[in-house]
Write a structure and sequence with these properties.
The protein has 297 residues and is of the alpha/beta class. It is built from 10 helices and 12 strands. It comes from Clostridium thermobutyricum.
Length: 297
């Protein structure tokens, strides 16, 4: 069975037209027709029904079966190409959400430099919610990911590195500053500072607002955490952030949530993904260094 024939068939299924498939593939229409004829002859079954009254073709039951398998085959072939290309380049794409990159990852940099791996790493930055998509689509090789519970996904292999929690953040002049613990419902009359979509912080705030049926006075959206922290410090509103990002700031105070919301940081790869020796070494350095630091703490 010819791989190119499968590519043509998959495109035909997508466009439902021999003409459109040929245009999309930049080939002649007879080339598509010949590919489908070869597949039908080899399989001994009709894959598509050509209708003269309707320009769109119909996919038969046999065609649906083949397309499902063909998609898997083409995906695996693309994965092979990417992995071999990666071997030749010796570059590893490491995904790091901005907050994890700023407040958690720096402790590993010197170790990676000492072992000569920092030059092999190409950093890709995106929020934790986007990071999963990048990992599963093969756009990154390794990810440091934040999640609201330990990762339990059949498509992802992960190792838990750290557990943190979300806290209420207020400026030093805020009227809530004397509270050590607060129920989120007490914030019903507050203005909020929140990071934009793509960050778990945004999802957490939305969930809390919905749970307690709070219609906020106003919500200010910040693209970067430094901007969000500056707005909180200026007492423009209240924020919900992970503790490690704000606990050492002099102009922001943290208040524990009465019902704690945990935040987990894990290092992850896609299951079935071929890990090169460099990838394995990088992951091992991060895990070993993290365990060493945790023992000290």
């Amino acid at each position: 069975m010819n791989i190119r024939d499968l590519e043509y068939f998959d495109c035909l299924c997508e466009t439902r037209s021999f003409t459109k498939a040929a245009e999309k593939l930049f080939i002649s229409q007879p080339s598509v027709t010949l590919a489908i004829n070869r597949l039908e002859k080899e399989l001994g079954s009709k894959l598509v029904i050509r209708s003269h009254s309707n320009k769109e073709i119909q996919i038969t039951e046999s065609g649906h079966i083949l397309r499902k398998r063909a998609e898997n085959i083409l995906h695996e072939i693309n994965e092979v190409k990417l992995e071999i290309k990666k071997l030749d380049s010796k570059k590893i794409k490491l995904g790091i959400p901005p907050i994890i990159g700023a407040y958690f990852f720096p402790k590993f940099i010197s170790e990676l430099i000492q072992n000569g791996f920092i030059e092999n790493i190409e950093f890709v930055q995106a929020g934790s919610l986007k990071m999963k998509e990048l990992l599963l689509t093969g756009q990154i090789d390794i990810a440091l990911m934040g999640s609201l519970e330990p990762i339990n996904d059949e498509a992802i292999k992960s190792h838990l590195l750290k557990k943190d929690n979300f806290v209420i953040c207020v400026g030093k002049d805020n009227h809530l500053i004397d509270n050590e613990v607060l129920n989120f419902s007490k914030l019903k009359y507050e203005q909020f500072i929140v990071l934009e979509d793509g960050y778990l912080h945004n999802s957490v705030l939305k969930r809390l607002l919905k749970r307690d049926k709070i219609e906020p006075q106003k919500v200010y959206y910040a693209h970067e955490i430094q901007t969000a922290k500056s707005l909180i410090a200026a007492n423009l509103g209240v924020g919900i952030m992970i503790k490690m990002a704000v606990e050492k700031m002099q102009d922001i105070s943290t208040i524990e949530l009465e019902n704690k919301i945990d935040f987990y940081i894990s290092i992850a790869t896609k299951k079935g993904h071929y890990s090169t020796k460099i990838e394995k070494d990088i992951i091992k350095i991060i895990i070993d260094k993290n365990e060493e630091l945790e023992r000290v703490l």
